[in-house]
Design brief:
The structure holds two protein chains of two kinds. Chain A is mostly beta strands. Chain B contains no helices and eleven strands. The chains are: A mainly beta, B mainly beta.
């Protein structure tokens, strides 16, 4: 079975720009969660998508938005990038809307200059 | 509020046993989870506890005391490949979100 794949692996943006990160969930998983991990810290929950609907959101501003597609893949969009948005963005998939046994992807490392 | 504390770094010797502690104060609780993250890689699920007591999985065991807001991860027969960050996380009541601690970076030396 294929795991969680994310793209791009690395990218550099400047303040004020917009970015879209993509995630393909593990085969058979229907739920996708996104986490932000700053250097040397634990991941922070951004939001979760289940059956194409947002199913929980962490303490992130509205300029962080997402989508889930019928094939359960997902996108994370961040508008008006700020320097503090520089981090590793982790996508995780799972089966069902109420489980925290997650399969993570390797992440997309975003640098904002 | 959510507060999860774990030591920042630990060092241990190959073949030894190490215990990584985690204390938590959270507004909800739906399990205590441990993930392993090698540098530059994805976190991988190790174990979780919902009820008090010890869960054993090969060389790794995890313990939970809900009344004390305390968990630990025990690693036996340490190997060099166990050098990684170990993330303690608490699940919320809805089961759709994990709150992570800052992670404990474990260095295993020969």
């Amino acid at each position: 079975e294929t795991g969680v794949t994310q793209s791009p692996t690395h990218l550099i943006k400047t303040r004020g720009q917009q970015v879209t990160l993509r995630c393909s969930s593990q085969s058979g998983h229907n739920t996708v969660s996104w986490y932000q991990q700053a250097l040397g810290q634990g991941p922070q929950f951004i939001f979760q998508y289940y059956r194409e609907e947002e199913n929980g959101r962490g303490n992130f501003p509205p300029r962080f938005s997402g989508l889930q597609f019928p094939n359960y893949s997902s996108e994370l969009n961040v508008n008006a990038l700020e320097l503090d948005d520089s981090a590793l963005y982790l996508c995780a998939s799972s089966l069902g809307e109420s489980t925290n046994v997650l399969t993570f992807g390797a992440g997309s490392r975003l640098t904002v200059l | 509020g959510q507060n999860i504390d774990q030591p920042t770094e630990m060092t241990a010797t190959e073949g030894a046993i190490v215990q990584i502690n985690c204390t938590y104060q959270t507004s909800g609780f739906n399990g205590l989870f441990w993930y392993q993250q090698h540098a530059g890689e994805a976190p991988t699920f190790l174990s979780y506890n919902v009820l008090d007591g010890l869960e054993e999985k090969g060389r790794f065991s995890s313990f939970l005391s809900r009344s004390k807001g305390y968990s630990y991860l025990l690693l036996k027969e340490l190997q060099m490949k166990d050098s990684a960050s170990y993330l303690c996380a608490v699940g919320n009541n809805a089961g759709n979100m994990l709150t992570f601690g800052g992670g404990t970076r474990l260095m295993v030396k020969p």
